[in-house]
Amino acid sequence: xxxxxxxxxxxxxxxxxxxxxxxxxxxxxxxxxxxxxxxxxxxxxxxxxxxxxxxxxxxxxxxxxxxxxxxxxxxxxxxxxxxxxxxxxxxxxxxxxxxxxxxxxxxxxxxxxxxxxxxxxxxxxxxxxxxxxxxxxxxxxxxxxxxxxxxxxxxxxxxxxxxxxxxxxxxxxxxxxxxxxxxxxxxxxxxxxxxxxxxxxxxxxxxxxxxxxxxxxxxxxxxxxxxxxxxxxxxxxxxxxxxxxxxxxxxxxxxxxxxxxxxxxxxxxxxxxxxxxxxxxxxxxxxxxxxxxxxxxxxxxxxxxxxxxxxxxxxxxxxxxxxxxxxxxxxxxxxxxxxxxxxxxxxxxxxxxxxxxxxxxxxxxxxxxxxxxxxxxxxxxxxxxxxxxxxxxxxxxxxxxxxxxxxxxxxxxxxxxxxxxxxxxxxxxxxxxxxxxxxxxxxxxxxxxxxxxxxxxxxxxxxxxxxxxxxxxxxxxxxxxxxxxxxxxxxxxxxxxxxxxxxxxxxxxxxxxxxxxxxxxxxxxxxxxxxxxxxxxxxxxxxxxxxxxxxxxxxxxxxxxxxxxxxxxxxxxxxxxxxxxxxxxxxxxxxxxxxxxxxxxxxxxxxxxxxxxxxxxxxxxxxxxxxxxxxxxxxxxxxxxxxxxxxxxxxxxxxxxxxxxxxxxxxxxxxxxxxxxxxxxxxxxxxxxxxxxxxxxxxxxxxxxxxxxxxxxxxxxxxxxxxxxxxxxxxxxxxxxxxxxxxxxxxxxxxxxxxxxxxxxxxxxxxxxxxxxxxxxxxxxxxxxxxxxxxxxxxxxxxxxxxxxxxxxxxxxxxxxxxxxx
Length: 822
Known about the structure:
This protein is mainly α.
């Protein structure tokens, strides 16, 4: 059926009504941007706010890579202690947290938590958690801890914007916000899961500096008090507050020497120092160090110097005679220097003023820690920084940083002097210690932002001037251009030649297997879960201090030493045990009441930062705990506990195709001693990739039973609970006393546990049925398995594959196992 057009009557065409056209035009005019009629400043404000919002989101999402690619979890070692204490704070409250005595760390000494940590990070996470719970958000405290560092990194971008605006201009502030959001030197310590003090400390550090510079520029008491509050938050969060309390007095001293003293400076420093010192004393870990520690005496000295300057200004106003004032000034300065020197000497000699700590000396002298405090020098992040680290952490900022310093010196002011001093001092400390690159990153970003902003502004001004000159068409263009150049703010360029700098970095991808699959080593959590599920609640675990925090937090077991290296003697005792012969190490372990020993071994996977490297490669760092050990003598090394625990049964293992058994992939050599025997320790658990190995103290693992009747039918046994003891001396500590019976009961007899089936022909307790040994076909259905939910099927922790040794030894009736009869 054809559709015909309807022709209009009288030959007229269809036209929209005038009313509809007017309505559409009104609607379009209402929605048009022109109707907003934003002024130039309003448009600039809108653009700045939009850029800051995008940068804020960018800083947050760039730090979520680990969570999105893997899972939401806490990283590294130290953050696990912070998470454990935060969890305790949210569950028990602040009062219990402040008075918490932790008996699970530094056994048998223990640790007073409230007096030995900086609580700022924990309190911050707890407040955010309580706030989210109050708003009815069902979140776990772990998720809050994981996202705390990215959240504060986003806040740091805002502070960087205002700081850059204060010391230079708005453009420098925007560039600084962008740079600090994507700078690898800051991202590395603020990613999701890095729940460490630095996650909030950099925000507090930059906030304190910004508020202080603002107070110096304005002379406002409110900004000075704000900087004191920022300093208090920094003190509560991180020990790096010492950098603030020394940099600010140094800055004030430079201003005094250069003749830049003013009432603005007087108000800013006095308000910040007095209130900040009083607030910092409320932190138990800090206490009265501001008036008793040599590291804080510079701030106090500058404070008294400021009072002297103010007093001299008042005296000069009263005298009115220049000669009399100069004579009085010489007398006052001589007396002040003498009294100060005497007071400092008496205070130091009497012990009231403590000397500088070793950590402070190690920052001033890079060789001090290696010679006097080896435990500090042994930490990888305390090593001097290589040039490659600067390149990876700063990228193009290494070239922009000198340019920014150039522009700062071209336009000196109170604010630019501060940022120059911050940049130079932090870069020096970053060269001394790798981890202090984090402190230098904000300064590098700010100074580089000044270089970018000043260069772009000068180039745009130059282009506009040239365009104006070309439009005039006069013959005096050259002279006009010369005259106009005098009106430019600053046309000097740090790079006089046109050029471009291209820096390319190779990306490091996750490891891949032989078939292209991604390989993830999860041995740490596997080992800690085994500890939590298969060891007594009061078991004591000895390991290198690096793993103490994780063992306590994830394994929920007591440790001998941990990452809070406050007792060098205790750590030296553990180091001596690890680096001794087995007999001597056994006595040390018995004296420390150790039940299990945990070692980290990388010979299978190629993980080079294992315990063997700490003892035998970095042995010079442990000579304070191993005075007798000649590191060069291989015949002695192979009998030491660390060597034996790492390479036990390793000689039976083929780790790489085409290599002999016992080939160490981390060190690239074949071990010489492949038949290692243990006398006082026994293997308890080895993870699937052999990265973590756990040994039990006490010789041979045996199953001993009650001898209620010599004619008991042991085939009716329903279950057996194995009890292992070092010797009969430990029977007194067991809650159930041994039954009374004669020593003829199964003395020196060997019995077979018929109800337990063998899992493998070469059965041992651990590391059976994994990818290195092949599959096990026998099954055990009665013995309790190590409950390891992280372990995949087909490993020794599966209920159908794991089984204990097929037989035991009864060495006398002092040893027993609990049994239940049907």
